[in-house]
Amino acid sequence: MHITNTTAAVVTGGASGLGAATARALAAKGAKVAIFDLQRDKGEALAAEIGGIFCEVNVTSDDSVDAGFAKAREAHGQESVLVCCAGTGNAVKTASRSKEDGSIKHFPLQAFDWLIQINLVGTFRCVAKSAAGMLTLDPGEHNERGAIVMTASLFGRLCLQHRARVGVVRHVEQALRPADRMRTATGDLARQRHGGLVRVVRQPRDEAVVQRLRRIEFARGIDQLA
Fold first, then answer.
1. CA–CA separation, 171 and 120 (whole Å)
2. Structural domain includes residue 95
3. Signal peptide span per the entry (predicted)?
4. Which of 5, 26, 66, 127 could, after both became Cys, cross-link 31 (CB 3.0–4.6 A)?
């Protein structure tokens, strides 16, 4: 699939970090980019910089995502590219003892649900709605109607201190995406004679760095047990 000045793209979490870099890269190739994010100031500034459009979107809400796609499509037409970068994390221990009074408390489960709703359900919400829109497009040179890219995190393979919850969520994302949803989404398009591509992209990893971090975290764990 070639990115041209007729390509409409949506980047979730596009106001900062990996999403912002993705939005800039797509715009540099000529794509018309819609940025989905909750960070209005950053999103609007970036949209002005790259000649795109900002859509204030909460990926945990059907209505918000629908409104975002409607605004983006009204401005740029049906997107043929979706890149999912929206995600978050938190740094709270699974269980801990208060330094003040010695009381024990566990990780708040509503915070874990919040992670699931954004990183996992929110991602697939955007994928499903974008894929449905792509089915309305005519096939391209290689019979493709669009490309969907889902990013994942190193935390899916490496659980650092206070990041166990993020690791679980990211691991589930990585497990579901390549094994089930990627094949299912691609198969759904193919069975209906609608070309499409769904791809999982993980951040590059340096094995030496990963192993060093694991050794550090293991040593910390031993110290805490002692």
1. 10
2. no
3. none
4. 26
* Residue range 48-99, pLDDT digits in tens: 999 999 999 999 999 999 999 999 999 999 999 999 999 887 777 788 898 8
Inside any domain, residue 2: no
Q: Which domain holds residue 52?
A: 8-90+100-225
The C-alpha atoms of residue 150 and residue 192 are separated, in whole angstroms, by 22
- Write the CATH number for 180: 3.40.50.720
| DSSP code for 144 | -
Give residue-wise pLDDT tens across range 155-205. Answer: 555 555 445 444 444 544 554 444 344 444 544 554 454 445 555 454 444
Q: Is 143 left (phi over 0), alpha (psi -120 to 50) or beta?
A: left
Position 3 in a domain: no
* 71: CB partners within 8 A, 6+ apart: 34, 53, 55
State the CB neighbour count (10 A cutoff) for residue 189.
21
Q: Can you give 38-50 as a three-state secondary structure string?
A: CCHHHHHHHHHHH
Task: Quote the tokens at residue 163.
Answer: 């990041």
**Rama region for 197: left / alpha / beta (φ>0; ψ in -120 to 50; rest):** beta
Residue 1 lies in a domain: no
Query: Nearest 10 degrees: CA dihedral of 17, 132, 128, 22?
Result: -10
- The count of domains in the chain is 1
- Return the pLDDT at 68: 98
Provide the token pair at 14: 């596009």
